[in-house]
Every structure is written in C-alpha cells, then in structure tokens.
Design a protein that fits this description.
By secondary structure, this protein is α+β, with helices and mostly antiparallel strands. The chain has one domain: Gyrase A, domain 2 (2-Layer Sandwich). The chain has a three-stranded antiparallel beta sheet, covered by helices on one side. A hairpin with a 6-residue loop joins strand 2 and strand 3. It is flat, with a radius of gyration of 15 Å.
Length: about 80
C-alpha cells in the first residue's frame, strides 16, 4: 500500500512508523517527506497475509491508547482533571 498525505510531517509519522513496525504481519513500513516546506508524506506499508489498512488501523488505535494513558498520567501528576 502506498498513500500520499498532505499537510503532515515527521511529528506524526515518526511515532506511527514505530507502531506499524510492531504490528504482526508487517514486512515493510516506511515514510518519506519530499521537502519540509511541502509537508507531503508518502507512506508505504507491505504486509504478509494481512490487509495493510487493518495493520494501519491497529497501529493508530494502539498509538491513541498510549496517548490517552500518557495524558491521564500527566493529569494525575499535575493535579488536573
């Protein structure tokens, strides 16, 4: 699978790549940015016996769970709600 995403940069895709590479069935995952000023990312995922979109959805879901957990920990430490 190859997708071009406009308006994003390394901030989102560097961690997403780490989550993708942890998913079962991922043979290859990478992203490339043409130029920092264009903010155009090309994401490539190759999987074995699994649809790439399933793997991408699972990676994003896992990432969101970790973000929610981090938010909760920070709110507890900082006394927020």
């Amino acid at each position: 699978m190859e997708a071009v995403i406009e308006g994003e940069d390394h901030t989102l895709f560097a961690p997403l790549l780490n989550y993708l590479l942890k998913q079962k069935g991922v043979e290859y995952a990478m992203y490339d940015m043409d130029h920092p000023l264009t903010r155009r990312i090309t994401l490539k995922i190759r999987t074995i016996n699994r649809p790439p979109m399933d793997v991408l959805n699972e990676a994003v879901a896992s990432m969101l769970i970790d973000i929610d957990s981090l938010k909760e920990q920070l709110m507890n430490e900082l006394g927020g709600s």
